[in-house]
Amino acid sequence: MRKHRKIGLALGGGGARGFAHIGVMKVLEKEKIEPDIIVGTSIGAIVGGAFASGMKIEELEERAYSFLESDLYASSELKAMGEAESGAEQRLSSRIQNYFKTKIRLASALYKPSILPMSDMEEFVSFFIPDIQIEETIIPFRAIATDLKNGECVVLKKGSLRRSILASSAVPGALPPVEINGRQLSDGGIICNVPAQHLFEEGIQAVIAIAVDRDIALCSGLQTAMDIYVRAGEIQGFHLEKYSLENANIVIRPKLGGIHWTDFSRSKELISLGESAAIDSLPEIRRLARSIAPWSLADNIKRSVKRLFVVRPSGNG
């Protein structure tokens, strides 16, 4: 009898671009590939945590669309920031308002630890993630964060699922750090944007990694000190990520172009682009699937029973 090989899913950070993860996971589900463990950074932790806790892919997709129609999103600073950065056609009055809002945000960052209010992010996470402990997820799950004091990468595998994901998603400058067990934690993408290597540390033999960060080839005009600073961060992140993905069996990179990390209004397009990228990778995915022993009946029964008792978020936080 062929030995069962464990498969892991590594979901990378990238803000709104991470909704492309849903499209990739739709294809994996059709191919009957269910991971033994999921590790996520930032938006990858949100999508991965929702799925690991028992939310089906079609539910997750519907929730992504309903979020855009919710009062929560309509009144959020996240939406305002996305509209300012999206580059979409706007009325002159809207462009002027967004220009001044952007300047005010940047100025406020000099006196506060973040541009966005933490309450917006807390409500966003609660919209997708049930109020449970990480240990209670149906599929084992890990969230990746960065300890701002000692510079270490932190793998969160115990405690509140929502708070762990909040820490993993605390983009530096945009959101304040989250304190967990005396540590000041921020976005895992500072050190590890696509946490493939952590799956190998968990004893996983086959890894599928999904990267949704900005294409390094895309570079707009470098006119200000902020432009240069951001570009330097992109280059640094690209090379760190390249190193972390060296041993992944499959790396899927949806072609997301220049979609901004705050532009959640393009969720439907992002999910579709993720699905297209996974379809393009089907030959590799199927080869990997053939190398993996079928899920045991006992595992399937165990997961099905756990799904019956999962507590899902209500949709309003």
Secondary structure elements and pairings:
Blueprint: E1 7-11, H1 20-30, E2 37-41, H2 43-52, H3 57-69, H4 71-74, H5 77-85, H6 92-108, H7 118-128, E3 141-147, E4 153-156, H8 161-168, E5 178-180, E6 183-187, H9 196-201, E7 206-210, H10 225-244, E8 250-252, H11 267-280, H12 282-290, H13 297-308
Parallel strand pairs: 1-2, 1-7, 2-3, 7-8
Antiparallel strand pairs: 3-4, 3-6, 5-6
Helix pairs in contact: 1-3, 1-11, 2-8, 5-6, 7-8
Summarize the structure.
By secondary structure, the chain is an alpha/beta fold. It has 13 helices and 8 strands. Strands 1, 2, 3, 4, 5, 6, 7 and 8 form an 8-stranded mixed sheet that branches.
Any overview of this molecule?
With 317 residues, this protein is α/β, with parallel strands linked by helices. Helices cover 45% and strands 12% of the residues. The protein contains 13 helices and 8 strands. Strands 1, 2, 3, 4, 5, 6, 7 and 8 form an 8-stranded mixed β-sheet that branches. Strand 5 (178-180) and strand 6 form a beta hairpin. The protein is globular and about 50 Å long.
